[in-house]
Amino acid sequence: MNRNWTINGRFLSQSLTGVQRYGWEIVTALDELLAEGGRNTADLTITLAAPPGCEPSSSLKSVRFVTAPGGSGHAWEQIALPRAVQGGLLSLCNTGPLTVRKQIVCIHDMNTRLAPDSYSRAFRALYRILLPALGFSAARVATVSHFAAEQLAHFGVASNNKIFVAPDGHEHALRWTPAHSATTSAAAGPDTVVVIGSRAPHKNIDLIFELARAMAPDGVRFALCGGLDSRVHAQGATASADNVVLLGRVSDDELAALLRDSCCLAFPSFTEGFGLPPLEAMARGCPVVSSDRASMPEICGDAALYASPTSVADWRAAILRLRDDAELRQGCIARGRERLPQFSWRRTAELYLEQMAAIDGRASQRSRAAAA
Which residues have CB under 8 Å from 267's CB, separation 6+? Predict the structure, then answer.
């Protein structure tokens, strides 16, 4: 019997952030597994359905691509997308149609509840209603870390027995080809700390500006990369400092060069469902200083130095240690590379295939092997 699953391609119409990257990397990993005839792909057809005007960024070998007519945004997702679904639906980027019960939806975090000041009032209100409704109606709820899973259960979005952890991967960062622009080349250096994130309050960029002023006598400067989606986020930090370079959005190749040629990545967030930049930095051989909150210790393990997101002194001490202690720096880089295999797009795609097989009433090949 043929099995049919559709992937919710609404993310193709959105700006690229960690959530949208997750969607695309899972799609491409599923495409590769289908082409190889991997576990749990027998008799399986997967279709990526997107709003009008969208196209996948590269060719797909085995996943079919279609556009489903009928508007855009949430209206397309709730009304047009269900008409394109045959069988099950995989929604990878926080939202999905409430009328499709045979659905796996990945809800990445509960930041709208944990950090409400970072989001517009309309966005918070929508997610407060939509996420629990999805958690109730969907067959399974994925999320990206054990921390995020605990928060989904805590806020009543889904029960523990419905949630599974399907983390981000690192392989995309290995495909980047380091290439500086004039601005990133001027910003990079052994005394430069890279910061990736918007000015939404939970990203804690105010601390970076305070830290920059404190570290100006140390000769340390900061390169801040990232933008802000005004439809989603509330405006946060507006501070400035002479030793902070505002790069805005940079390309993946520019980021790879910046990470390669700088002292470290600083990641001071108060909360994250996963926190992809530290993993990307590890993949590019850049040591990490991270906040000691939320999912960050789960993701970074012993490969990062940690500091309280409220302590400028802790951050200054950690950054100076990495800059001035070559042995510590090389140890962090080595431990980061050792940690990478724990976070793989391919392994996460295989996990989705197992869940899809279970929903279809088929014991996954991994489950049969374990039973034997």
Answer: 195, 196, 197, 275, 277, 278, 288, 289, 290, 291, 296
Residue type for 243, please?
A: N
Average pLDDT over residues 43-70: 92
- Residues contacting residue 128 through CB under 8 Å, at least 6 positions apart: 112, 113
Cα separation, 47 vs 30, whole angstroms: 11
pLDDT tens digit sequence for 132-179: 999 999 999 999 999 999 999 999 999 999 999 999 999 999 999 999
**d(C-alpha 263, C-alpha 257), whole Å:** 12
- pLDDT, tens digit, 9 for 90 and up, residues 101-143: 999 999 999 999 999 999 999 999 999 999 999 999 999 999 9
Token readout for 313 is 């002194």
Helix runs in 284-339, H state only: 296-300, 312-324, 326-339
User: What is the C-alpha to C-alpha distance for residues 264 and 326, in angstroms, rounded to an integer?
Assistant: 12
Sign of CA dihedral 28, 34, 38, 41: positive
User: Please, what are the domains in the chain?
Assistant: 3-169+344-371 (3.40.50.2000), 179-342 (3.40.50.2000)
Tokens of 159: 């029960």
Mean pLDDT for all residues in the chain: 94
What are the phi and psi torsion angles at 14 (to 5°)?
-110, 160
Long-range contacts of 58-62 (CB under 8 A, 24+ apart): 58/28, 60/27, 60/28, 60/31, 61/31, 61/32, 61/34, 61/35, 62/31, 62/34, 62/35
More reliable by pLDDT, 187 or 370: 187
pLDDT tens digits along 3-33: 999 999 999 999 999 999 999 999 999 999 9
* pLDDT band (50, 70, 90) for residue 333: very high
Q: Collapsing DSSP states into helix, strand and coil, what is residue 114?
A: helix
